[in-house]
């Protein structure tokens, strides 16, 4: 077959775009099943303790109320691997916002009124929610999030630091951050006899099906999980959350389809968050700017019911050639909600700290910050000693500097002023690992000569349907319009979740394999396909998860121009520019959208996003979009994303790396470094809000 030659890499529009803008795309809470009812959770009003009583009489007396589930009458489930899913299973309250009851009614309004009428008694204890470096409960975990060793040490970093010509010893603080996808966490559950059908907002339907099978002790074959359209997740929907467990419970009790759509104010406490980090960086260098010692100690919190350690020190094991190094993590269990995945976990806060410290080192050396990074470019991954499958960070830095006009920069802080505005520019590098997971896909021909490719991938708004169709068309050698993609249903061949920037690399491998095999069968088949068509299934288990002898990472360089208002303290970003080396770009349109989305989220991390844990109430103060400020269009006037043409044959059949997360990694540091260049003041705590900036300028 002769293909068009333009399917893979072309800037193809998203296939579901029209459905979404016309309202035709149904999300998890929008399935109008006959007899559907709604449920509303009751969050705990204490930060630590136990439930002593639940009085549901007033709630049950309200019109339209069907049931109130409590720890006394809720269905019992098997002990979950994730303790955050053990909702309504006992009286314990591990943190404020933990669900202690669930009201079920004919309408969302009735369910909300019923939840407000439930009276809960508590035996409360004083909570401990303060993260400090010297907390008596701090310890070094064996592993950090992702299975990385908690501690790695090479040589003698302490003595090397002490003897270095130039030394930097600084601490950077990143507050708790919240994912806040546009679509809240929602699930609609329906029992059809002994079969369970769930519509859920998740980044991985196969994983949710497996979790429900374990919790409700039923075979996976009896469960169908549909995640056809998902309105973002940013990691918080990477695993099952309480909404899907509660929906299944309520459907079991009432015998009706039940929708649980979490109110946004409830989400920070129950769907995970990026844990705060205290990052101490100690960099030593010789007078030529070559690193002699690197130490990154990251201190964070976790909840008391599960250990989740933000791996913020891990990126320092990848970035620069430092012969003596220590990267370690410290964690404090507190009475706080369980942290979990958030876009570029570890890399986003860790690289903010590392790249800010590199900027401080460049300033101490009197060296250009781009040149300092180039001078410390390693020829192998510093921690493992493995060769890189590909590494084009220097090219990203050089190309970004050219496009940004870096050579025109006056390096002196505070040297550029426009009336009350101070203007500055900054740079930061970025990295994100390449993850590939096993998946399965099926490709079949139809009598009309078109093709259907099925895989339980999840399109969370990234354009996965479109890119996978491009992979399929390329492998089949047919026009793109000849391929129909089926995704988002656990009855399709199982696939890994959309997380860790691994989706396209993992799913695309399975799709490519299935379509390549089908193309070979068609080439050997004389005449038209049989009436029933031909079908081929592929599973990449044993290939995608095979150990690699190469260190596989994407890299990038971020440049920012900011203004700082000396009257109001407001920081504005005029320009953001990123250049990335992320393997073969499979769709130029959706890739640019992903890069820009990540950079915009990084801008929010730098300037507006931050959450505060109330030390008395044990609750996040900023729990909605009125108080937790995500960037708006007015905050992002000019964002450019470019990439290096990179060929890497050691990744997957497409030669692609993940692109969903690297865009956020270096942005906050680039913005922070630009603010220092504008003002001459070094701010080491995010976000850079006007109160902090004015205080720094006054000091």
Query: Would you count the extended β strands for me?
Result: 26
Largest sheet data: 7 strands, mixed
Classify the secondary structure makeup into a structural class. Answer: alpha+beta
Backbone CA Rg: 26 Å
N-to-C CA distance = 71 Å
Query: Would you tell me the overall average pLDDT?
Result: 96
Strand order of the largest sheet: 3-5-1-14-11-12-13
**Percent strand:** 15-25%
Low confidence ranges? 1-5
Which of globular, elongated, flat, extended, rod-shaped describes the shape? globular
Oligomeric state of shown chains: single chain
What's the helical proportion of residues? Answer: 10-25%
**Number of separate helices:** 16
Provide an overview of this structure.
With 699 residues, the chain is of the alpha+beta class. Helices cover 25% and strands 24% of the residues. It has 16 helices and 26 strands. The strands form six sheets. A seven-stranded mixed sheet has the order 3-5-1-14-11-12-13. Helix 8 (347-365) packs parallel to helix 15 (667-679), helix 11 runs parallel beside helix 12 (503-524) and helix 13 packs across helix 15.
Summarize the structure.
By secondary structure, the chain is α+β, with helices and mostly antiparallel strands. The protein contains 16 helices and 26 strands.
Annotation keywords:
699 residues, alpha+beta, 7-stranded mixed β-sheet
Please outline the helices and strands.
Blueprint: H1 17-21, E1 37-43, E2 49-55, H2 57-60, E3 65-69, E4 92-93, E5 99-105, H3 108-117, E6 119-124, E7 143-144, E8 148-149, E9 151-154, H4 157-162, E10 166-174, E11 186-192, E12 195-200, H5 205-215, E13 223-226, H6 242-254, E14 258-261, H7 267-270, E15 277-285, E16 291-303, E17 324-334, H8 347-365, H9 369-375, H10 393-404, E18 417-418, E19 421-433, E20 440-445, E21 451-454, H11 464-476, E22 483-486, H12 503-524, E23 535-539, E24 553-565, E25 571-581, H13 588-607, E26 639-643, H14 662-665, H15 667-679, H16 690-698
Parallel strand pairs: 1-14, 12-13, 16-17, 21-22, 25-26
Antiparallel strand pairs: 1-5, 2-4, 2-6, 3-5, 7-8, 9-17, 10-15, 11-12, 11-14, 15-16, 18-19, 19-24, 20-21, 20-23, 24-25
């Amino acid at each position: 077959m002769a293909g068009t030659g333009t399917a893979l890499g072309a800037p193809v529009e998203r296939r579901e775009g029209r459905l979404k803008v016309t309202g035709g795309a149904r999300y998890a809470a929008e399935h109008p099943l006959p007899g559907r009812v709604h449920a509303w959770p009751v969050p705990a009003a204490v930060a630590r303790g136990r439930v002593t009583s639940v009085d549901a009489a007033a709630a049950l007396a309200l019109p339209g109320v069907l049931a109130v589930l409590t720890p006394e009458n809720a269905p019992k489930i098997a002990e979950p691997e994730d303790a955050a899913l053990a909702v309504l299973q006992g009286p314990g309250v591990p943190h404020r916002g933990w669900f202690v009851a669930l009201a079920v009614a004919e309408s969302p309004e009735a369910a909300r009124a019923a939840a407000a009428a439930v009276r809960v008694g508590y035996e409360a204890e004083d909570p401990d929610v303060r993260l400090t470096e010297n907390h008596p409960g701090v310890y070094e975990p064996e592993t950090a999030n992702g299975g990385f060793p908690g501690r790695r040490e090479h040589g003698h970093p302490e003595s090397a630091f002490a003897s270095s010509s130039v030394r930097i010893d600084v601490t950077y603080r990143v507050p708790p951050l919240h994912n806040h996808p546009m679509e809240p966490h929602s699930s609609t559950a329906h029992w059809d006899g002994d079969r369970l059908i769930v519509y859920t907002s998740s980044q991985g339907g196969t994983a949710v099906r497996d979790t429900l099978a374990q919790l409700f002790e039923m075979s996976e074959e009896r469960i169908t999980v549909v995640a056809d359209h998902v309105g973002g997740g940013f990691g918080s929907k990477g695993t099952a959350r309480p909404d899907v467990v509660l929906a299944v419970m309520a459907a079991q009790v009432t015998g009706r389809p039940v929708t649980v759509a979490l109110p946004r104010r409830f989400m920070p406490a129950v769907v995970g968050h990026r844990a705060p980090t205290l990052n101490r960086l100690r960099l030593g260098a010789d007078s030529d700017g070559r690193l002699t010692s690197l130490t990154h100690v990251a201190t964070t919190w976790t909840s008391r019911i599960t250990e989740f350690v933000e791996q913020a020190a891990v990126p320092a094991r990848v970035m620069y050639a430092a012969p003596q190094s220590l990267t370690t993590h410290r964690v404090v269990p507190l009475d706080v909600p369980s942290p979990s995945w958030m876009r570029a976990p570890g890399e986003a806060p860790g690289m903010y700290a590392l790249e800010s410290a590199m900027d401080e080192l460049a300033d101490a050396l009197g060296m250009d910050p781009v040149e300092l990074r180039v001078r410390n470019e390693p020829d192998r991954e510093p921690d493992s000693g493995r060769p890189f499958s590909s590494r084009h960070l220097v090219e990203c830095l050089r190309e970004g500097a050219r496009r940004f006009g870096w050579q025109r920069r006056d390096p002196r802080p505070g040297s550029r002023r426009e009336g009350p505005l101070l203007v500055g520019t900054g740079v930061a590098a970025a990295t994100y690992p390449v993850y590939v997971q096993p998946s399965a896909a099926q490709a079949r021909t139809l009598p009309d000569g078109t093709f259907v490719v099925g895989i339980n991938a999840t399109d969370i708004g990234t354009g996965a349907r479109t890119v996978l169709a491009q992979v399929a068309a390329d492998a089949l050698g047919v026009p793109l319009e000849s391929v129909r993609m089926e995704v988002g249903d656990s009855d399709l061949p199982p696939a890994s979740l959309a997380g860790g920037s691994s989706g396209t690399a993992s799913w695309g491998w399975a799709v490519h394999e299935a379509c390549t095999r089908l193309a070979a069968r068609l080439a050997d088949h004389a005449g038209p396909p049989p009436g029933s068509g031909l079908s081929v299934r592929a599973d990449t288990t044993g290939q995608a998860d095979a150990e690699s002898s190469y260190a596989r990472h994407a890299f990038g360089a971020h440049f920012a121009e900011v203004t700082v208002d000396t009257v109001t303290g407001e920081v504005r970003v005029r320009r953001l520019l990123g250049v990335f080396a992320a393997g073969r770009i499979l769709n130029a349109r959706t890739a640019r959208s992903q890069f820009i989305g990540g950079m915009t989220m990084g801008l929010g991390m730098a300037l507006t996003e931050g959450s505060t844990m109330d030390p008395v109430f044990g609750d996040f103060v900023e729990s909605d979009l009125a108080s937790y400020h995500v960037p708006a269009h007015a905050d992002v006037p000019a964002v450019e994303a470019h990439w290096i043409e990179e060929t890497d044959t050691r990744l997957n059949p497409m030669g692609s790396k993940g692109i969903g997360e690297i865009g956020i990694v270096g942005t906050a540091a680039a913005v922070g470094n630009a603010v220092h260049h504008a003002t001459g003041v070094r701010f080491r705590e995010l976000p850079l809000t006007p109160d902090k900036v004015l205080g720094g300028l006054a000091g």
